[in-house]
User: Which sequence fits this backbone?
């Protein structure tokens, strides 16, 4: 365990990389996922179909296979060869996570009862007013818990990057366990605790947002 | 078609949508064409790098890899069911001294990344004379999926109408009898679609064995491309096998859902293959 305590900066920098991966790909998948969700609930049938196919295929693909494409298969064809590893990790995680973000958003929008929009229209609100004052506020609230789940899963999924040469927390734990066979359990507990802290922070944040946005009913 | 987001389109909007449709189709065609052209000019669509798909020896290896992967997923889910029933029922216990440890175990294994768990199991107990990569992977999958199954089970038991348990107590059944004769059998019916979805998750996660060189599809894929140097083609084939298997299982889950539970949405604890979907409690994961 001395090795870990004396090299604690390595543990911290590993978790910093984990957090970077989670943050950047989290933001990117929120953007891409929102676009996809807009396509999936929009009025144009082809866009709906295309986004649907994307979501269905990606949801049934293992994340490791996505990484395999970004880190091995595509560079082998001659693209993404000089791209930094962090960026490649972000690309793979975003490609995967945005499908789940899209589904969470779609479920949130669909959870707003049709009667709400109809009532808003009946009292003469325009489309813009209807969206900004009636539909979207309700959809955002409904979407917070599932989106938090997606972000938590994303944080855990960053560990897959370890298999492709990114020295984030899981890869660092492997290094430490290799050198300190006697303290494996403690090392595992340390890194597990690190992940649990990150995950709990996200769910506390979501809980706070949920409470703050809660509407009196 | 009426929708919460937009009005039923009028003739002018319909025309505009038709324009969007044409533009989208064109854009998608151009995209697909560009990808194919790039692949074509790089020689990735030639016969040679694809030849392994029609070579019996490679096909056999791929088949074995698929089979190993399937056995891993099934073994993991079977063990996870045992784990899940023990800890799920434990979480529903009336005794705090039993409930809290079960809660802690379930929450721990759901919060820790599966790969971290697998790496730990492999390097602590798997290497050398240990249990080996196959069982390291299966046990890692068991612990994680077992924790999820425990949650599914709890949700399933709680979803059985309250009157069922009350009626059972009223006719004089004991706690164990109520759980095993009345609640669990009905919960299984509610849980089944979610369980099959979890099988999809387990099947996807078997690919993590790549990191510890556990036998299975990804391992077979790696050995094929180290021999032939056709990373791209092998990745396409392995991805296709995974996607087809998962789509079949997802389809099965939908059918079972319709048959057993009706059109209502399943207990969804499976998005991103990890978290507890719409039923987040906020505090835990």
Assistant:
């Amino acid at each position: 365990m001395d090795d870990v305590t004396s090299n604690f900066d390595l543990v911290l920098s590993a978790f910093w990389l984990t957090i970077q991966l989670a943050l950047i790909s989290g933001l990117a998948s929120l953007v891409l996922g929102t676009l996809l969700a807009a396509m999936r609930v929009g009025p144009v049938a082809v866009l709906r179909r295309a986004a649907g196919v994307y979501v269905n295929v990606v949801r049934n693909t293992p994340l490791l296979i996505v990484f395999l494409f970004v880190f091995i298969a595509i560079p082998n064809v001659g693209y993404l060869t000089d791209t930094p590893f962090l960026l490649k990790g972000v690309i793979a995680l975003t490609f995967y996570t945005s499908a789940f973000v899209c589904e969470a958003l779609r479920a949130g929008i669909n959870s707003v009862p049709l009667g709400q929009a109809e009532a808003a229209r009946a009292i003469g609100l325009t489309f813009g007013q209807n969206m900004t004052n009636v539909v979207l506020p309700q959809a955002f609230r409904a979407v917070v818990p599932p989106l938090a789940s997606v972000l938590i899963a994303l944080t855990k999924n960053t560990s897959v990057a370890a298999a492709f040469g990114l020295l984030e927390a899981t890869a660092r734990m492997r290094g430490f366990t290799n050198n300190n066979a006697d303290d494996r359990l403690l090392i595992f507990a340390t890194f597990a605790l690190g992940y649990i802290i990150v995950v709990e922070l996200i769910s506390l944040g979501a809980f706070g947002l949920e409470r703050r946005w809660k509407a009196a009913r | 078609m009426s929708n919460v987001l937009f009005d039923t389109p009028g003739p002018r909007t319909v025309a505009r949508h038709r324009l969007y449709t044409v533009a989208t189709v064109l854009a998608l065609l151009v995209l697909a064409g560009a990808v194919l052209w790039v692949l074509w000019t790089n020689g990735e669509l030639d016969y040679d790098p694809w030849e392994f798909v029609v070579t019996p020896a490679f096909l056999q290896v791929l088949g074995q890899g698929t089979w190993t992967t399937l056995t891993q997923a099934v073994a993991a889910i079977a063990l996870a069911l045992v784990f899940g029933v023990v800890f799920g029922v434990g979480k529903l216990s009336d005794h705090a001294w039993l409930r809290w440890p079960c809660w802690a175990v379930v929450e721990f294994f759901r919060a820790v990344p599966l790969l971290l768990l697998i790496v730990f199991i492999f390097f602590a107990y798997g290497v050398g004379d240990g249990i080996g990569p196959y069982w390291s992977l299966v046990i890692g999958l068991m612990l994680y999926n077992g924790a999820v199954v425990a949650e599914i089970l709890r949700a399933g038991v709680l979803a059985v109408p309250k009157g069922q348990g009350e009626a059972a107590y009223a006719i004089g059944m004991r706690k164990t009898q109520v759980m095993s004769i009345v609640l669990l059998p009905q919960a299984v019916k509610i849980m089944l679609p979610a369980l099959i979805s979890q099988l999809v998750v387990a099947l996807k996660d078997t690919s993590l064995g790549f990191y510890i060189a556990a036998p299975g599809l990804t391992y077979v894929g790696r050995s094929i491309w180290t021999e032939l140097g056709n990373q791209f083609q092998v990745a396409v084939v392995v991805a296709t096998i995974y996607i087809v298997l998962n789509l079949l299982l997802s389809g099965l889950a939908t059918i079972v859902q319709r048959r057993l539970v009706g059109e209502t949405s399943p207990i969804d604890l499976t998005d991103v293959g990890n978290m507890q979907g719409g039923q987040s409690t906020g505090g835990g994961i």
Residues 62 and 220 of chain B are 7 Å apart (CA to CA). DSSP finds ten helices and no strands in chain B.
